[in-house]
Design goal:
This protein is α+β, with helices and mostly antiparallel strands and 279 residues long. The chain folds into two domains: 6-46 and 222-271; 55-217, no CATH class. Helix content is 30%, strand content 22%. It has helices at residues 6-16, 18-43, 55-62, 223-253, 265-271, and strands at 65-68, 90-91, 98-105, 107-111, 122-129, 140-149, 156-165, 188-190, 192-195, 206-211. Strands 2-3-7-6-5-8 form a six-stranded mixed β-sheet, with no helix packed on it. β2 (90-91) and β3 form a beta hairpin. α2 (18-43) packs antiparallel against α4 (223-253). The chain is elongated and about 90 Å long. Residues 74-86 have low confidence and may be disordered.
């Protein structure tokens, strides 16, 4: 009887069965990836994958464009179709109805062409599609960007008024409400949304937008959902790791065919009983 040689068997199995070994390595790497992801989820809060677009994504999509006045437009043009400069949030009810939001957002407005009006108490209104804001569908939305002054008058902040179908707007986690002002509302200027790669003409006045990622506006998983996801990751990772161990055991128990080649002396040594030559 021959002794069990697991190391030799494993070495010969790896050299003689490369497809199975590749499959085993894929299972092993997937198992460790799931277990590492589960450990990461225990120490960090993960974003909710069911939320397609939050306010950070909406503002990031909006900042990819520039707001430019029409060449024949006027900076003192007041538009009646634009929403009020400082409205309260309005929701008409059903999912097919429109919702109007007026929120203070981490968005910086800068003028990079002339002539242009001063940034203080400036409102820029345009109409965009939902896809331009990173939302699903091609529904039209009214967007007004307000650049307002702080109470002390030293700094500026930006508010965004957006109105569109309720089921398209990100309503799970909203920025803070934009404060009311007591002075006269600023004039609303009509602008168009153009790509930043487009060079404006000499008669156009354009404004660039720059968004800042705010972690408080990212929709995260709840503790319950994260615990369920972590349990599933642990179960699947352990099952895959168990399959890898079974595969290793099977390979170590499989006798190497290299020892049985030739004249069969090794096989005879393994099968013939040990007897005393003197007898």
């Amino acid at each position: 009887m021959c002794a069990w040689q697991p190391v030799v068997n494993l070495r010969d199995y790896v050299s003689l069965h490369p497809p199975e070994v590749t499959f085993f390595l894929c299972f092993l790497s997937l198992s460790f990836s799931l277990l590492c992801l589960r450990f990461y989820g225990q120490t960090h809060t993960l974003p909710n994958p069911d939320t397609k677009t939050d306010w950070n994504g909406l503002l990031s999509s909006l900042s990819k464009f520039q707001l430019c006045a029409d060449a024949n437009g006027s900076w003192v043009e007041q538009v009646s179709r634009a929403p009020p400069p400082h409205p309260q949030d309005q929701t008409d009810g059903g999912p097919s109805e429109d919702t109007q939001l007026h929120r203070r957002v981490p968005l910086v407005v800068a003028a990079y062409s002339s002539p242009s009006p001063p940034l203080e108490d400036l409102s820029l209104h345009t109409t965009v599609t939902a896809s331009q804001l990173g939302l699903s569908g091609d529904a039209s939305m009214n967007v007004t960007v307000h650049v307002l002054s702080e109470a002390e008058g030293k700094d500026h902040y930006t508010c965004l008024t957006i109105s569109g179908p309720t089921h398209l707007l990100p309503l799970d986690l909203l920025p803070p409400e934009c404060p009311q002002i007591e002075n006269t509302p600023p004039t609303v200027h009509v602008v168009t949304l153009t790509s930043k790669t487009q060079v404006p003409s000499a008669s156009q006045s354009c404004f660039s937008l720059q968004s800042h990622h705010d972690p408080s506006l990212t929709v995260m998983l709840t503790q319950e959902d994260q615990a369920v996801a972590g349990r599933h990751l642990l179960e699947v990772g352990v099952c895959l790791l168990g399959l890898c161990l079974v595969f290793c055991l099977y390979a170590s128990l499989t006798p190497s065919p290299r020892r049985h080649k030739g004249n069969g002396l090794d096989r005879n040594k393994c099968t013939q009983p040990l007897t005393d030559p003197a007898n």
